[in-house]
């Protein structure tokens, strides 16, 4: 039991260490409002080298550089939309945390709905056949 508690505490300490080090580069030159804007943008964009992590969560060199880039753009007076447009131009819409709804992504949005309808119809037909065979 003591060993299990030790392993658990060790795991928690390593996990917490990663969270504390996520923001280590040049936070000093932003006001509180600017830093909140930056964090919002970090959460709205994905790290291109880490699968499924936002810039807010990632500790890769790419994420550190992108966080620094976003902070510099905020200090220079750019709006959130302008910053996101620059990132989309450089890396495509894949850098966005949410998949945009446009002609390029219709297939991604419609496929789950289409599959749900097909599965529902199939299950209804199957249940209907089972009820008929049971009678």
UniProtKB/TrEMBL annotation:
Segments passing through the bilayer: 106-125
Signal sequence annotation: 1-24
Assigned keywords, A-Z: Heme, Iron, Membrane, Metal-binding, Signal, Transmembrane, Transmembrane helix
Domain CcmH/CycL/Ccl2/NrfF N-terminal: 18-131
A single Gene Ontology CC term: plasma membrane
Entry-linked CDD domains: CcmH_N
Pfam family, one: CcmH
UniProt GO MF annotations: metal ion binding
Family that this chain belongs to: Belongs to the CcmH/CycL/Ccl2/NrfF family.
Biological role stated in the UniProt entry: Possible subunit of a heme lyase.
Protein name: Cytochrome c-type biogenesis protein
Species whose genome carries this gene: Anaplasma phagocytophilum str. CRT38
């Amino acid at each position: 039991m003591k060993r299990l508690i030790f392993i658990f505490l060790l795991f928690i300490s390593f996990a917490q260490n990663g969270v504390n080090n996520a923001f280590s580069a040049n936070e000093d030159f932003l006001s509180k409002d600017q830093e909140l804007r930056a964090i919002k943008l970090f959460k709205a964009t994905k790290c291109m080298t880490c699968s499924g992590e936002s810039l807010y969560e990632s500790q890769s060199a790419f994420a550190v550089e992108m966080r620094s880039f976003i902070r510099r753009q905020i200090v220079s007076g750019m709006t959130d939309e302008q910053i996101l447009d620059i990132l989309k131009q450089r890396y495509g819409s894949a850098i966005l945390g949410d998949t945009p709804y446009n002609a390029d992504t219709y297939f991604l949005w419609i496929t789950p709905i289409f599959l749900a309808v097909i599965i529902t119809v199939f299950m209804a037909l199957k249940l209907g056949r089972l009820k008929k065979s049971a009678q």
